[in-house]
Every structure is written in structure tokens, then in C-alpha cells.
Specification:
CATH class of the largest domain: Mainly Alpha
Order of helices and strands: HHHHHHHHHHHEEHHHHEHH
Strand content: 5-15%
Number of strands: 3
Helix content: over 70%
CATH architecture of the largest domain: Orthogonal Bundle
């Protein structure tokens, strides 16, 4: 196998060709694809007593269900045993990330290296089960109140709850199998597979919306999507390099030698990823969901009707400016909050000091911490505004082009991020095998 790309052949295609030429990597790729097929089969195993046509109508009226369906890979729209997807696990992971710097015991575990991280991961898995039970019961109760689930027996409801918990645990297990035996992060791959599975339907709706002759709008809509993908790729890879010097002593031949080296710390511009979008969307949609329980007839004056109309993403202008403006501001706020929580948990200044590293011109310890906090605060402004702009892209694209189809900003960020991360892991595997082959 050649270690150099064929002239004129894209790097991505060359990497895939090289990977399939190696038996172990080919086996990993095929295993990942096989697990995705199993996931899609499970996503179509339905629960009993569900009116799917009424459920589809509810999806059009309650946008938050679309976000939950994003993490279930379309299983919620079918209300299958995997209707919750891996969302309870993601919620548990976010809770543990926030609690780790707050609770001393968890903070101590996070500093124990790989063993500590494994213990925190075990706690996260156990926390997922009660969260999944609460979410499953909440979903069933909500759908029963809307007349979508006709089941009334307590035993049947309990069976449905346990089935949905089992579906979530099964998807978590599939994700761990992919991480261990496949390519990429398993949980991310599961979410990625669900999002990709829904894209053909979204594209079909966009073409149907342009059948009235709005083909220029459709072309512009596609260009906006492509530009958004380029923006996501740029900010996903963007980082600020902080130079670091290392000084260490090596005992050799009965004498002590001083050695030094230099490297850098890559601080990501968008450290928070798509988590701020999840937080912001959950908060901004929550009032509208609560209002649906108290709404009256559409033509009657009602406070709940007013709240529902103000807190819905498809509201007409100028009401739509309130929803999307609030979404933009909340995204920026949560970006700063989550970035600071994660950054403080990493304790880079303490790690550098323990390893004998220092930033040139900055005293180790408190001064290094202050400097790094200042840098991350400045670059987070760019990452937060980027997330806010990406959050507004569906609103902008729909009103500029006239194509009444909203794609998910979070979905695009997840898809692009998973593709980039998986390709990096694939290239790392190729480099490692080329190196081993050279040594042999």
C-alpha cells in the first residue's frame, strides 16, 4: 500500500481506499456500518397503541419534539422502543460535567487519571437509567394527554417504560461496541446515523416546497446550507495555540542532564460544541410546551395562546424576531457558561506545573491560570457568536428564500463534527499502521 496520496485524488477518498485495503481497518469500518443497520432496525420496532398520524401532526405543532427526535434518530417520530435514543445518556453526561467541579468527591475522581474517568463514566451510566425512566414515563403521559397513546392499563404502561429504558441502554451498548471495535466515537456515530437517515425526507420536502416555481429560492437555500457547512468546518477546527516550554532532568551515566523542549496547547475557539444550542433550545421552547396544556380555541383571547404564539420557531414576523433573538442571546450565554465549566475542570495551569511546563513570559501557577482564563474568555466570544449565527441560519434561510423547510443547526454541527472526528481517527490508524510497517 502506498503511503502517498495518488496525484489528483482527494485526500478523503484516498484515505478510504487505503483503509479498505487493510483487513483490520476494513473490519472496523464494516462493523460500524453493521451496528448502524442494527440501530435503524431497532428504531422501527413500535410500541403498542400509538396513533402515528396524530403523532405526526403533534410534531408539526411542538418543535421541541423535533429536537428530541434528533437524538433518537427518528425513533421518536415512530414512537419505537428506542424513542428516547441516547438523549438520557447525553443529559446524564451534561449533569456530571457540571457537577464534577462542584462536588469535591467527583473533582477528586476526575484527577485520578484513567481510573477516575472510568468511575465517573460508570456513575454516568447508572444515572442514565432513572433519567430514562422519568423521560419515558413523561413522554407516555404527555402523548396520552394528547390522545395519541390509547393505552390505559398500568401494567402495559410499566412495560412500555421498561421497554424504552431497555432501548436506550441497548443503544448505549451499541455505541460502546462501535467505540471499542469500530471507528469513531460510538454515541456520536449513533446520533449521526439518525440525523443522516432523516436528510432524504428533509431534502424531499425542500423540493416539494419549490414546485410552485421558486427554483431560484431553492438554489439559494442550498447555497446557504453549503456556506453553513463551510462555517462549521472552519470553527470546528479553529483554535488558538499557546506556546509551552518544558524543562526536565534526566539521570544518565551517573550524571544529571537538563533537557528542554517546546510544544503548544491548542485552545479551541468553540470549546462547548453544540451543547449551548441544546440548552438554549430547551429553555426557549419550554414556555410554549407548558402553554399547550392551557390553550383555548385559536380565535379566543387566552394568555396561554399568546405565550404559545410567542415561543414557537415558525411564528410569523415580527413575533418570530422575539423567539429567534432570545435563542441567539441564550446560545451566547450558555456558550460562555459551559466553556468556563469545562475549562475550569481541565485545570491546565495545574497540569502544566506538575509536568514542569510553563508558558514563556508567564509565571507558573496563579499567573498562568489568569493568563489562560483571559485567552479562553477572548476566543470564546468568537465561538459563541458563531454558534448564535448558526442557530439563526434556519430562520434566515426560510425567510430569505421562501422555502418553508427548517433544517436543524444542531444536526449540521453534529454531522460535520462526527465526520471530521472519524476521519481524524481513521487517518491516525493509517499513520500508525504505516509506521509499524516501516519498523518491521
Amino acid at each position: 500500500m502506498s503511503s502517498r496520496p495518488t496525484p489528483g485524488r482527494p485526500r478523503l477518498i484516498q484515505a478510504m481506499i487505503d483503509a479498505f485495503s487493510l483487513p483490520d481497518l476494513r473490519r472496523r469500518i464494516l462493523f460500524t456500518l453493521g451496528m448502524l443497520i442494527v440501530f435503524r432496525l431497532v428504531a422501527h420496532v413500535p410500541l403498542p397503541g400509538v396513533n402515528l398520524s396524530a403523532l405526526d401532526q403533534l410534531f408539526q405543532n411542538v418543535p421541541l419534539l423535533g429536537m428530541l427526535d434528533l437524538f433518537s434518530g427518528g425513533a421518536l417520530r415512530n414512537f419505537s422502543i428506542a424513542a428516547m435514543g441516547v438523549y438520557p445518556y447525553i443529559t446524564a453526561s451534561i449533569i456530571m460535567t457540571i457537577l464534577t467541579p462542584v462536588i469535591p468527591q467527583l473533582q477528586a475522581l476526575s484527577m485520578e487519571g484513567e481510573a477516575g474517568r472510568n468511575k465517573i463514566n460508570t456513575i454516568t451510566h447508572w444515572l442514565t437509567i432513572p433519567l430514562a425512566a422519568l423521560e419515558a414515563y413523561g413522554q407516555i403521559t404527555y402523548l396520552r394527554s394528547q390522545g395519541i397513546v390509547s393505552v390505559t392499563s398500568g401494567f402495559t404502561i410499566t412495560t412500555m417504560v421498561f421497554s424504552m429504558i431497555a432501548g436506550t441502554v441497548f443503544l448505549m451498548w451499541l455505541g460502546e461496541l462501535i467505540t471499542e471495535r469500530g471507528i469513531g466515537n460510538g454515541i456520536s456515530i449513533i446520533i449521526f446515523g439518525g440525523i443522516i437517515a432523516g436528510y432524504p425526507q428533509t431534502i424531499g420536502r425542500a423540493f416539494l416546497a419549490a414546485e410552485g416555481g421558486n427554483y431560484f429560492g431553492l438554489i439559494f437555500y442550498i447555497l446557504i446550507l453549503l456556506a453553513t457547512v463551510v462555517l462549521i468546518v472552519y470553527f470546528t477546527e479553529a483554535h488558538r495555540r499557546i506556546p509551552v516550554q518544558y524543562a526536565k532532568s534526566v539521570f544518565r551515566g551517573g550524571r544529571m542532564y537538563r533537557q528542554s523542549g517546546s510544544t503548544h496547547i491548542p485552545l479551541r475557539v468553540n470549546t462547548a460544541g453544540m451543547i449551548p444550542l441544546i440548552f438554549a433550545m430547551s429553555v426557549v421552547l419550554f414556555p410554549g410546551i407548558i402553554a399547550t396544556y392551557f390553550m383555548g380555541p385559536a380565535d379566543a383571547p387566552n394568555f396561554a395562546n399568546t405565550i404559545y404564539n410567542w415561543f414557537r420557531p415558525d411564528a410569523s414576523l415580527p413575533v418570530g424576531f422575539f423567539y429567534w433573538g432570545l435563542y441567539f442571546l441564550l446560545t451566547i450565554g450558555f456558550a460562555f457558561f459551559y466553556t468556563m465549566v469545562v475549562f475550569q475542570q481541565q485545570d491546565l495551569a495545574g497540569v502544566l506545573q506538575k509536568q514542569g511546563g510553563f508558558i514563556p513570559g508567564i509565571r507558573p501557577g496563579a499567573q498562568t491560570k489568569k493568563y489562560l482564563d483571559s485567552v479562553i474568555s477572548h476566543i470564546t466570544w468568537a465561538g459563541a457568536i458563531y454558534l448564535g449565527v448558526v442557530a439563526l441560519v434556519p430562520f434566515i434561510a426560510q425567510h430569505i428564500t421562501g422555502i418553508a423547510v427548517q433544517f436543524s443547526s444542531m444536526g449540521l454541527i453534529i454531522v460535520v463534527g462526527v465526520v471530521l472526528d472519524t476521519m481524524k481517527q481513521l487517518e491516525a490508524q493509517l499513520v500508525m499502521r504505516r509506521y509499524e510497517g516501516f519498523i518491521k
